[in-house]
Amino acid sequence: MFSFTLRRLLFAIPTLLIISFVIFALLDLAPNDPLGELPLTIPPEVREQMRAALGLDQPFLIRFLKWLQQFFINEPLNIFEELTGLTIGTGERMRVLSWATRSPVVDLIVQRLPQTLWVVGLSYVFGVLLAIPIGVISAYKQYSIFDQIGTFVSMVGYSVPTFFTGVLLIVIFSSYLQWFPSIYDTNLVVNDWSSFVLQVKQMFLPVLVLTLFNTSQISRFVRASMLDNLHQDYVRTARAKGVKEKTVLLVHVLRNSLIPVVTVIALGVPTIFSGAIITEQIFRVNGLGQLLIIAIQGADIPLVQTLTFIFAVLIVLFNLIADVLYGILDPRIRYD
After folding, report:
1. Which terminus of the chain has a smaller tally of CB atoms within 10 A, N or C?
2. CA-to-CA distance for 290 and 276, rounded, in angstroms?
């Protein structure tokens, strides 16, 4: 297992380099111009000076190599210095800067990350915790009232888009009942019980929308996988030996059923960091999803490149974690 993990990590390095090159090239070829919204009265020579200040006057390969140096060397060194208080070299190094704000891109991401983790991350945790028992019970009691209700709710929750569900909950709980706020206050500081209650109230609706979607998606995979394993020969053998039904269900069947579900859950984790773009727009959550939309609209290429590449890194990482979990859940799977 260790050699397999090491090989995958070494293989991930050229994979991420290729992905970074493709992302950089596609965004560089995009028709958006960061100076396109400036007034036409600006003289051409001034525009060229502004393009030179942004580094757009340099060849594509030079800009790509500089971005690699800034992202893989300069930014990690800056993070290390901030965490440890130590200074490496002069401490002055070029960072990936946003074209719109001229602020370091990593600082912008760190500012928005807590909002995304609180809303999207919490909804994903709730979705997984609810989906597994719902899928297990629905499969074990197939065609029961619980299974039929769960199937109906899951189909509705997965089929109806989140922007419709979000607007519907805002109309019911914010406009009509006035129980919860419809706009997320990013500036709220939690320092006492009353502010904690306000934080929970403003998180309730976006978390509920995303939890319903995640639960509906994952529970269908759990139910289908459980049904495939409930009628296998090893289940009938365990029952014939007198093994308790609870042990058969939770130890034998559930463990084997979680193998395909792990893929769905692991590959869904990177979406936590990418943010729920539509839901964040509806509830005005200043998370990474909204930051990405703003960056795309403003042609802020360095910010879009960094965010997109971070999402790619997370996908590669959690793909590896899913493969490792396969070997833990099923000892028959051997990589070495």
Report:
1. C
2. 8
CA distance 154 to 163: 17
DSSP string, 265-331: HHHHTHHHHH--HHHHHHHT--SHHHHHHHHHHTT-HHHHHHHHHHHHHHHHHHHHHHHHHHHHH-T
* Residue from 182, 189, 185, 178 nearest 206 by CA: 182
**Residue appearing with tokens 């401490």:** 91
What mean pLDDT value characterizes the chain?
79
Q: Are 239 and 248 in contact (CB under 8 A)?
A: yes
Residue 245 in this model has a pLDDT that exceeds 70: yes
- 113-329 CATH fold: MetI-like fold (1.10.3720)
> CB neighbours (10 Å) of residue 34?
17
Record the tokens describing residue 144, joined without a space: 């029961």
Q: Is 56 helix (H, G, I), strand (E, B) or coil?
A: coil
- Are 182 and 203 in contact by the 8 Å Cβ rule? The answer is no
